[in-house]
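cache lookup: miss for this entity combination. No prior model stored, computing from scratch. Input as submitted by user K.M.:
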Amino acid sequence: MEFIKNFPFFTIVLSLLSSVICYAFKDKKARFVSYALLLISGGMSLSVIIYNLTVEPGYFVYRMGHYDAPIGNEISAGLLEPFFALLFEIVIFLSILGGAKHIFSDIDESKHKIFYIMVNLAHAALCALCYTNDIFTAYVFIEVCTIASCALLMSRSTGRALVAATRYMIFSLIGSGLTLIGIILLYSVTGHLLFPQLYSSIQELWATGQYTFPLTIALGLLVSGLAIKSGLCPFHLWMPDTYGTATPAASGILSGVISKGYIFLLLKVIFRVIGFEIFTESHIEVILLVLGVCGMIFGSVSAMHTNNINFMIAYSSAAQIGYIYMGLGLGTKEALLASLFHITAHALTKPMLFLSASGLSDTVQGKQTFAPLCNSAHKNKVAGIAFAAGALSMVGIPIFTGFIPKLLFTLASFGHSTKTYIVLIALAVSTMLNVVYFLRTLINIYSMRKVDIKRVSIHLKDNFSQSVVLAVMVAINIAVGLHSQPIISLFEKGIEIFMHIR
Amino acid sequence: MDTGVYLFLASMGYIDNKLTPIVPSQGAVNPTDYINPIPQGLVLTGIVVSVSVSALMLALTVMLYKKYRTLNLDEIYDMCRKEDNEQ
């Protein structure tokens, strides 16, 4: 077996080990362990992608322990798994690097290393969710991810953050509980926990008409549990408080990456456990389509009514999650491709918005409401440009990343009779609403209206790491927007492999 | 909710008239004589996860009380709204 096939396992274990190693470092210095881990893991994920594209095209299955399936555990890596692991690593690295100054100012000095320990733990959980081939292992790492996310929220010990963390935990635990009941029902009907064995059992049972009702209930519970955790409407109410009150790095990680890990696991469950045909026959995709469309509209309407920039970005996240589920609800490969690209676009854009919003707030002593923020983009030029790029990306302006998934969704919507009209109208309405609240904010931050508040100019050297990270994020956003074809080709190959990993 | 789920899972493994899955001193055994041990393993893992989550929620509760001197969520939300208005 080639050494490179160990890399997915190494990314998970290294992340767990580095969480322990972080304890040995003093406070702020623990961040270097996180940086090193993410760079090494990113290199390993990229190597696996190149290996699976060139050396041995396809996928490989890696045995975890001494026993082969179905007795032992295993992980698998095609193209999508290492791609999303790499995406998560890039986003987490840029978020913690760009948000470093706020981490040091928002969080007590005694808790700095705990913050980085939890970042490493969240990274371990996300890698495990990407690579796992076992449904109970997936549940365990869902819980690990929830604990790490809550700790990231709690690290900023303001009252609002604690209330937000409590609300987040309650919603998350409901989602985890439903997922667990679905897993147990699946296990009790099929007797298996590994994806390939579950898939063949479920196909056999469905074809013979046995246990159809319990399987449908189990599928519904799994899908609803993961949908609650990722923030699908109407379960998105925890998002504004959670993303709006955390430190910017934590907001970027939670909105850009953590919710996407659950969605990727849901994709694995739908395509490699239940099977695409059963998923469409059970009509659960219609429910996802309806809830996705509702999320797109209600998330955007809520974003229009809020007066706080961070809350606005958080409600926008709820709307963007709706786009992803709308793609799943269409139930075609083209729509799945659009959803995967939207996950990528959102993961690259949302942390940039949170970091730039924090840069703009810094010019007015941390205030986040719109009135004090007017003219802030002139006081912090880098944050202003990054916010503008993020806003235009979310709206779907060409050359930015956000344009591509909107185009892909539109193309994927054709040929479905009723669904075509629903999706096209939802896309049009949601895009118009995005324009209203994002461009309104953009005009506000660049307007020269005089407000009676003390302002501070922030130059490049005042927050060098944030400025550099924002510049890199804008560059990545534009690069992906202009050169999306390699990623689309990777996703097309990845989807074929993804659906056939057994 | 999790407690009920674990009881349900443990009950899934039970088979009438079968033995507890402990290997006797004489060695190799016939697996069909025993109840299914996997759900018990899953329950143990789940309990560990639940304990961690419970510990985290208790820590949150203590921190909330230190901050607001009450555990009544309505009062806490009122105080949060007042803080937001002052900002």
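stored under new cache key. Helices of chain B lie at 2-12, 38-68, 73-86.
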